[in-house]
């Protein structure tokens, strides 16, 4: 937990940095002191202390102090640690969850809002023009592609998702100016996805890549949404990259929903009513 705070320091506001340094200097005291004294020691306001806790991914000061107290008393630095052969189930639970949380926080602190804005704008432009929106992915990324299609379909944004390399190449061949292809890959080096991206781009479609920075796919796409979480295979390692890709799709879908605005509300309500009517009582 302290490593995570240290890594987040550069991205915090100056006042929040003072709170972070108080935690790092004396975590036991921070976990036990009231908010007024924490604010006085940090030379900030009480809301700033709470804002720091929320910026680190917690609901508030109480949630942050509870986790901090547990970390201090147990002394178990699970963040970014691999699962060991002698781990108990309780150890595995904490390691898997903490690795995921750490990856999400790292993404939040490093994500380019400019790239996210450009991607959401491109998707909305394609939808409003009545053009094609397609999601491409292979393996675990194929699951994310299907999820992307599902989330955007809920918004009334019709799209197609394919996880077969031949289908992707054929589908990309039929794209043209105004269309949009969202390509998802952890490594950014899958041949089929690269071929589909090159074809779509050559035909005039906008290409959006959710993939690792510096990869061939990242360089080839018009818009790159960086998803940097290398997987390790020496022992079991949680597939955090897939969760990270799903998170990025959620951010995109939310951005698109906000742009659609009020007309979306009655459609979503009717959809919910229709689905509820099909359930067994």
Automatic annotation (TrEMBL):
Chain ranges passing through the membrane: none
Ranges of residues in domain HTH rpiR-type: 1-75
SIS domain mapped to chain residues: 123-262
Annotated Gene3D superfamilies: Glucose-6-phosphate isomerase like protein, domain 1 (3.40.50.10490), Winged helix-like DNA-binding domain superfamily/Winged helix DNA-binding domain (1.10.10.10)
InterPro entries: Homeodomain-like_sf, HTH_RpiR, RpiR-like, RpiR-like_SIS, SIS_dom, SIS_dom_sf, WH-like_DNA-bd_sf
UniProt keyword annotation of Transcription present: yes
PROSITE patterns, A to Z: HTH_LACI_1, HTH_RPIR, SIS
Origin: domain of life: Bacteria
Key words of the record: DNA-binding, Glycolysis, Transcription, Transcription regulation
Protein name (record): RpiR family carbohydrate utilization transcriptional regulator
């Amino acid at each position: 937990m302290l490593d995570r705070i240290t890594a987040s320091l550069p991205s915090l506001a100056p006042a929040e940095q003072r709170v972070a340094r108080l935690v790092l200097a004396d975590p036991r005291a921070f976990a036990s002191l009231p908010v007024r004294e924490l604010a006085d020691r940090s030379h900030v306001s009480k809301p700033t202390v709470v804002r720091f806790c929320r910026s680190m991914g917690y609901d508030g000061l109480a949630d942050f102090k509870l986790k901090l107290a547990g970390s201090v008393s147990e002394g178990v630095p699970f963040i970014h640690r691999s699962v060991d052969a002698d781990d108990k189930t309780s150890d595995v639970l904490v390691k898997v969850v903490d690795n995921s949380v750490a990856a999400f926080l790292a993404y939040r602190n490093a994500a380019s809002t400019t790239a996210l804005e450009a991607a959401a704008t491109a998707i909305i432009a394609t939808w409003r023009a009545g053009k094609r929106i397609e999601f491409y992915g292979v393996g675990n990324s194929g699951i994310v592609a299907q999820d992307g299609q599902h989330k955007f379909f809920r918004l009334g944004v019709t799209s197609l998702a394919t996880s077969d390399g031949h289908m992707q190449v054929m589908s990309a061949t039929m794209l043209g100016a105004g269309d949009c292809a969202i390509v998802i890959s952890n490594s950014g080096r899958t041949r089929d996805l690269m071929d589909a991206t090159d074809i779509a781009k050559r035909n005039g479609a906008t290409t959006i890549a959710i993939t690792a920075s510096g990869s061939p796919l990242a360089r080839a796409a018009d818009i790159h949404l960086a998803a940097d979480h290398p997987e390790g295979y020496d022992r079991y390692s949680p597939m955090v990259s897939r969760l990270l890709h799903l998170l990025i799709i959620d951010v995109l879908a939310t951005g698109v929903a906000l742009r659609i605005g009020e007309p979306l509300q009655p459609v979503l309500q009717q959809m919910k009513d229709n689905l509820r009517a099909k359930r067994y009582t």
